[in-house]
Amino acid sequence: MDCRKFVLAVAAVLALVTQLVAGSSVTWKGKKVDLAAPPADFPGDAKEAAEALVGWADAHGYKLDLDRSGRALVISTSNGSKWVKHAESVLAMVDELHVDRPEFPRPPPTGPVNPGPGEWPGPAAAKWGTSERRLDTGTFVLVVVKRPEDHGSLLARLAAITPYLASWAKSSTPAPGFALGEPLVGAVVLGLPENKEWNAENEFVHRAAELALQRKFGRQPYWLLQGFAWHAEMEVRRGIYCFPYRSGFVWAVEHTGWRARAAALWRGKSEAPLAEVATLKRGTFDDAGALNAWGAATFLAEKHAAGFAQALDELNRLWESGSRKDLGGGSWERIPDYEVPVAEQERVLRAKTRDDLPKALASWLSPG
Fold first, then answer.
1. DSSP per residue, 292-318
2. pLDDT tens profile 306-324
3. CB-based contacts of 201: which residues, under 8 Å, 6+ apart?
4. What does the domain layout of the chain look like in residue ranges?
5. Residue 104's Cα: distance from chain center in Å?
6. Angle separating helix axes 80-95 and 222-237, nearest 10 degrees
7. Rg of the Cα trace of the chain?
8. Are 122 and 167 within 8 A, CB to CB?
9. pTM of the predicted model, to two decimals?
10. How far is CA 330 from CA 112, 309, 324, 326, 333, in A?
């Protein structure tokens, strides 16, 4: 999208959403809820999320559906209940990763110059889309974009809500899907030429898993976030069709044969050190890295859920502190694409799950 078109799109979107459209509603617990006068028990976080995007949705013919817990808002043109059911399945998986958190009464730090995603627990944020959101609060939004041409106006709206997204929104072209950590929003884009070897429901589950995990645990190492999302795909959809940053033909065995293919990578090896497992990088697709990410996340979620949850909390705290660049005078900015060093990741995972993690993971990946 060129700059002139983007500026015009932002202006048009702002004109649409300066006030709540009369009669705007969201379906919740099987009933239409008027956003201008919701019932007393309607989740406040969900109301803020809906109000942020309902103007765009109404203008483009989309409907809003909210899960019963108020944690997932789906925007689509049809089959809202189907998409919500998938979101609820993913949320149930994340709920199994339970962690007891103390309260963090500290005041929020001086506002960063360039706020990034995934803030750790602090005072609750005032509005949807801000970076001060407390962990395990708020409503994530997943848009099922029916027409590729709606993609640009959606991004323009997101950039209007969160200005640091503006440069990304201007240069982004429609892709099968995306998920952001802040604001907690993602999309599944239908009708693209590359959708031939693709499954929209799998893409939805994958992106919902990314959003749900970040909603609860904040920013995570990219490989681990994707690994959990593939774990969710396999559990909910019994196959994998979402391959971020990959292009080209996908063989049939690549959708369901991950257990056997991961086993082949580690056959005859007694240990799987994280330096060899955590190789998947943002912006690229690596087949072995994807298999290892899925295998490690599945092992941790299924065999060590409590420790895995504690590790995710600690990894987010390390990201929170390590990704800040001190500018002096009490101000700071976020370091783009900062990742917790792999050695630190392994230390945390071993401390919170089991000290012999490399050996146990190798045994699980390639039994016998």
1. HHHHHHHHHHHH-HHHHHHHHHHHHHH
2. 999 999 999 999 999 999 9
3. 82, 86, 237
4. 3-365
5. 24
6. 120
7. 20
8. no
9. 0.88
10. 9, 32, 12, 8, 11
